[in-house]
# Entry
Amino acid sequence: MISENHITVIEKGTDAWNSWRDKNPHIKPLLRGERLGDLHASGVNFRDTDLSNASMEGANLIEADLSNSNLFHADLGGANLLRAKLINANLQKTYFCNRYKSTIYGLETHENVISYEHYRSASLREANLSNADLSEADLCHVDLTDANLSGATLFRTNLSGANLTKTNLSGAKLIEADISNAILYSVNLQDTTLTNCRIHGISAWKLDITKTVQTSLIITDKDEPEISVDNLEVAQFIYLLLHNKKIRDVIDTVANKAVLILGRFTPQRKLILDAIKEFLRNHNYVPILFDFERSPRRDALETITTLAGLSKFVIADFSEPMSTPLEAHAIIPNLMIPFVPIIKEGEKIFSMFTDLKMKYDWVLEPISYNSKEDLLEYFEKGILERAENKFCKIREKRLSAQRDPIRMREI
# Structure
């Protein structure tokens, strides 16, 4: 059957087309270059169909089967491909996003001309594009939420501004792709290759980067000097450091003024917490609270260690209800920072704490207190001064070790 007859069949509607496909399974339809804009073809069977250079702007292709189809240089701008199957499809140079230039002139004169760009983007929510070839395809601003692009080829693909929320990109190859300003939330990047991609302005959170290859990721905009990194998750942070002085100031503040406060602060003991925080603030410190009462999960240990690593020193309240020794064991052996234990008078710190104190000299003598007033009276000399002195000694020790490679290895 020739192409003219194929277009005649599809014009009869999806049911007629699918029925014809069922009766003629050996035929690979030819719809090359056809104008199929605003086609209502939900559930259509376009398997093995040649749709290269076809115009399908705004088409309704919900749950359509386009597996093994040839969509080379096709126009799918504004098409709805919700839950569509595009497995092994050829999507090279396919347009999923069309741009329209608009110009607004002043009402009385042609001054103050404003030009801006519209995007008519396809929806590929929950679409299956596994193993598809999307080389040089335009997916600008396309919604790929929950889409499956596992094993897909994305060579020089334009994904700028795309929504990649919960997208499966496992095993995909993104080479010289543009994903600038894209949203990457909870994306599966297991075994994915990301090489020479432009990632300026991305929002990346909760990524699975197990065995992900990340090299030469460009964090700057096209009109800026090119700077690249090899880690997607830290890229946006590094860019902020480079371009936002306030962020740099915050980093400096955290490094020099942050104090991590650990403990279980029940409602009855919240007065102690508030007093510690207020005292630290009044002395130009930045208190960071981690309340075990509200954070009982075991995986909180990693968060605690990270916060401790950002802090100048740690104040840990081991009063009842006592925090488990796990937290102290997570911080003290791994981080050379002053560790100041405090405890309510008459109570005892867990038995293994003595061993930690003997082994690591950055653990200070515990401070006992009977009341808020008692703690605050002794706070400056008993806690702050001792912690600052220990911090200075640790810093001197590190500087000395840097001048002596053998001592550096010992530390």
Summary: Residues 100-119 have pLDDT under 50 and may be disordered. The two ends are 79 Å apart (CA to CA). The longest helix spans residues 372-403.
